[in-house]
Specification:
The chain is α+β, with helices and mostly antiparallel strands. Helices cover about 60% and strands about 5% of the residues.
Length: about 750
């Protein structure tokens, strides 16, 4: 019995219904010779000026060795495009290393060519400048043509084995993806599959670290002291509160904080640094094996680009590399300006959180201590909306900067755009996290001498249980929204758009020509563009950043990424095979600049996690107290917990008589002193000696952590070679065989 995924029903214009697989078999046979289709509206055909430009474009294509066929229905005009076999013969002549092993054939017979190569050549020529300077994109923008697309031809095998939910836990058919969508798309899915597979140990370790906190949920000495501190009053905090609060009221949040701020956090951060290195090194080995299997190990991208240019125009003149220090300086300045803008957006969020806390305290006073949590949650939501908006702005800015740099080829342009766009996106996503992790609550002053925003509002402080809670909430909300809402919109948007386009074509179509119906069915699919695969890569890079950069504060990030990727692979497969027009295949032997992006993220992850543990977590203060100030400084005592008295030690004393207006604080009549989180002297409220000792230990730990983690990364990179020895030996053997053949085929010299 055929499943619903592989036996879709496509209704014809007269109400006839055909199984999708049967339709594909008949229609593919009918349109086998056409790889590319242009579409024009009926209005463009009626307009003599536009019809003349269409004809000029098609005639110029004919001069380059292309054929076309026109089929018209009641609403649209379709132009099937086909390249002559001479074009592909020239392609093989220009490239010394073809796309695969080409069988020897008789000269009169056409040279066999892969469908991906045919589409790539046709697409390149169509999007090149014509004699009058116009490109196909210009003609589409002006309305001469409505759209263009590569034809889907027989993707039933991919539908059965890849583009359905039941294949979620099955291995991806990478070779089949390569044969249909090209090497670049296949390498993306190969990388995504390997990344998802490697997330399993990271997710398991993160879950163990998180659950280990539950083992100490009730047994933690610090949590016990906080829950029993009914007599300790906290000073009014930086959320415009006018009330004292008992330390015991923060009992629940103190226990929750210990779930992800415990002794296992350091080990997990080091583990993730090692994991990121091993992941990349083994991926390089995987890529080498795959590329060798595809006979692309020695493929040269520049040579491919020049061959396509010569096929399009035999008089093509080589465009040399260009570099201008003036342009580079301008681009650097503009990039720094955009980065500053991203940081400025983080400060806008700071202002929002300060004002929101003040308004909530005034409007809903009964919320009390829940105001901080409410502000943190709404702040994360505002940040997510800001990221969505800035993504569109960042893409436009990165494109402008990239065009201003004048890259030589499309591949070089894509590489430069990748670096610029990712840099802007990284700061857009992480600027607020950097603020929460390293700035929040550290510039507020102290009770009696608070730093005020606009001289009126107190700056926001971390939660009473520490800044790790705020960082955890921010990461959980942003990453959760990106993985859920983004995936939903990523599928529902194309699905609804496809349904709407399909309904419009059903109403207007009256032809029973199978070839025309195949073109119309492709026309109904959602269009693809240059950024279709790029956007998928960028989405995964941002997720990878969340999974590694601040993972010490959110150990569940790898687990969330694992579940998201299992869905993401199938969503991308369904979109590419069933909801979108065929992606134009591109040749590649690696994932390009994205590999350098991944390596950069790995280094940033070591630095960021070291700083989180040193300056945001309570790990260092606990260790220093345990061995320098606590009851175990002279040696451990079995009957005494080494952290006994830590809570009292970590809170500074403030005398209420030093408040500027103690009368306005509720319940201040019988209160002589209150406590606050800091290391300050009770006499003059200056930073105490304990603060400077802690700062020195924090800096020493940061240096030690980063050196240890980076050394581990270097050792792992050395221990796991980028290229397997079997691949090296295979390449070496092929070189040897070629030299032997040349030696045997040379003419023998004769003695005189």
């Amino acid at each position: 019995m055929q499943d619903e995924e592989s036996l879709q029903i496509w209704e014809g214009p007269e109400g006839d219904s055909f199984p999708m697989m049967e339709m594909n078999a008949r229609e593919t046979e009918a349109s086998e010779q056409w790889d590319y289709v242009l579409v024009a509206g009926s209005r463009a055909q009626r307009d003599p000026r536009w019809a003349r430009r269409q004809q000029q474009f098609l005639e110029e294509l004919e001069g380059k060795g292309f054929h076309y066929k026109v089929i018209e229905d009641q609403e649209k005009v379709f132009f099937g495009i086909q390249a002559d076999s001479r074009v592909f013969a020239l392609y093989h002549t220009l490239l010394t290393e073809p796309e695969g092993p080409v069988p020897r054939v008789e000269p009169a017979r056409p040279i066999p060519i892969l469908a991906t190569t045919r589409i790539r050549i046709v697409n390149f020529v169509l999007n090149s400048k014509m004699a009058n300077g116009d490109t196909l994109e210009d003609l589409v923008r002006e309305g001469v043509f409505e759209t263009r697309f590569a034809l889907h031809k027989g993707p039933e095998a991919l539908v059965k084995t890849w583009a359905q939910w039941r294949s979620m836990v099955h291995k991806q058919p990478i070779d089949a993806i390569r044969d249909y969508f090209g090497e670049k798309a296949a390498l993306y899915f190969a990388w995504l599959g390997w990344y998802t597979y490697m997330l399993v140990p990271a997710a398991a370790m993160g879950l163990i670290v998180f659950l280990s906190g539950f083992a100490l949920f009730e047994a933690s000495q610090i949590s016990k002291e906080i829950c029993e501190a009914h007599h300790i009053l906290l000073c009014p905090r930086g959320d415009n509160s006018r009330r004292y609060q008992r330390l015991s009221d923060t009992c629940t949040f103190a226990k929750l904080t210990h779930l992800f701020d415990n002794e296992g956090t350091v080990l997990f951060a080091i583990f993730m640094a090692l994991w990121a290195t091993v992941f990349l090194e083994i991926w390089k080995r995987q890529r080498a094996c795959v590329v060798l299997h595809w006979d692309l190990y020695g493929w040269d991208e520049d040579q491919e680009e020049m061959a396509l240019e010569l096929i399009n125009c035999p008089n093509y003149q080589l465009r040399p590399h260009q570099h201008s220090y003036l342009r580079s300086t301008i681009i650097l300045i503009l990039s720094l300006f955009m980065v500053c803008l991203m940081v400025g957006m983080a400060h806008v969020l700071v202002v929002y959180r300060v004002l929101a806390a003040a308004l909530l305290n005034a409007a809903v006073p009964f919320l009390g201590r829940q105001v901080t949590t409410a502000v943190a949650v709404t702040g994360a939501l505002v940040h997510y909306v800001t990221v969505v908006i800035m993504t569109k702005i960042n893409k436009c800015v990165a494109l402008r900067l990239c065009d201003f740099e004048k890259p030589r080829t499309f591949s070089e342009r894509e590489s430069k755009f990748t670096i610029k766009f990712f840099t802007l996106q990284f700061f857009a996503h992480f600027s607020s996290l950097i603020y929460i992790a390293f700035i929040l609550g550290r510039i507020n002053g102290h009770p009696g001498n608070l730093v005020l925003l606009a001289g009126q509002w107190k700056l926001e402080e971390c939660h009473l249980s520490g800044c790790m809670m705020d960082l955890f909430l921010q990461m959980a909300i942003i990453m959760g929204l990106k993985q859920t809402l983004s995936n939903c919109m990523e599928y529902l948007g194309p699905w609804l758009a496809h349904k709407c386009r399909l309904m419009r074509v059903k109403r207007g179509c009256r032809s029973r020509d199978p070839e025309l119906r195949d073109w119309e069915r492709n026309y109904c699919l959602n269009p693809v563009n240059t950024f279709s695969l790029f956007d998928e890569f960028m989405e995964m890079m941002i997720q990878y950043s969340f999974t590694t950069v601040f993972v010490a504060a959110f150990p569940l990030a790898p687990l969330l990424a694992l579940f998201s990727n299992l869905v993401e692979i199938r969503l991308d497969a369904i979109k590419m095979v069933r909801l979108r027009q065929r992606l134009v295949p591109r040749k590649a032997k690696d994932i390009g600049t994205w590999l350098q992006v991944l390596e950069t993220i790995g280094v940033l992850a070591v630095i960021a996690n070291g700083m989180v543990i040193a300056f945001t977590s309570e790990f260092i203060p606990r260790v220093v107290y345990k061995y320098h100030y606590g009851p175990c400084r002279q040696g451990a005592h079995p009957a005494v917990d080494c952290l006994t008295g830590y809570v009292n030690h970590s809170l500074s004393v403030f005398y209420t008589k030093d408040f500027q207006d103690p009368v306005r604080i509720e319940g201040s009549e019988n209160v002589t002193e209150c406590r606050y989180r800091d290391y300050r002297s009770a006499q003059d409220y200056n930073l105490s000696g304990q603060f400077w000792v802690l700062l020195a230990v924090r800096l020493a730990f940061l240096i030690l952590f980063e050196h240890v983690a980076l050394c581990i990364k270097l050792i792992a990179a050395w221990f796991v070679p980028d290229v397997p020895q079997a691949v090296k030996n295979k390449v070496l053997e092929e070189k040897y065989q070629r030299l032997r053949e040349k030696l045997c085929s040379r003419p023998k010299s004769t003695d005189v």
